[in-house]
Amino acid sequence: MKTKLFIITSLCAIFLLSNRAFALDVYLEYTMTTSGSKPITSKMYGKNGDLRTETNMIIAGRQMSTTLLMLKNRPGVTLVFNSMNKTYTEAKMSNNAGGNIDITVLGNEKIGNYNCSHVRMTAEGKSWDAWYTKELPTFDFPMMGNNANTKKVLAQLKSKGISGMPVKVVMYKPGTKTPTLTMLLTKHEAKDLSPSLFTIPAGYKKSSVDFDANKLKNMTTQQKREMMEKLMKEQMKH
What we know:
Layout: H1 2-17, E1 26-34, E2 40-47, E3 50-59, E4 62-70, E5 77-82, E6 87-92, E7 102-111, E8 114-123, E9 126-133, H2 148-159, E10 165-172, E11 179-190, E12 205-206, E13 211-212, H3 213-216, H4 221-236
């Protein structure tokens, strides 16, 4: 589930970057549903180009709160906080351009109360759909602007006239139209947010295990398994 949270946060960064508007603090709530699990609410806070997400979930039968920070002064890095042992992990995301991303505009649809543009994206055998609305204000979110993947997606979205807030996102099982993850916007508020939300909490120490997506692609299956086992053991420590 933690790996999916990394993916979710990266997707949100791409979507929110698609239409910079004005400096605005924004609080969002998305309901996330994966196959065979109960809906999870993810809270997102955006301020001055930084993003914070908070998600409560059950791991190994225990309730756990996971907080992610993506800061404009640390591009390409996601800070993952573990409430069980008061540590944080640095997850370094890939900075390469990757393969080509194909974007198809499927038309206009209404999701809840919002009129949206429906877009399908495919890359390296994976596909996901997103529904954007121009009826909600977006906010300035530049912290991933130096990432080659992000720039590529932004250029393609702009060329197709797509902008606005993502109201819904659906990720599919490769080669099928079976949803593996669905995100639905359930709250959008513009309000002043405390800068303390975007700092490392007092008492938290850096984990001895880091996650590096740039190195992950060159690892063997066994090396990947060992790295994830080490990461999970670190996360479950008291």
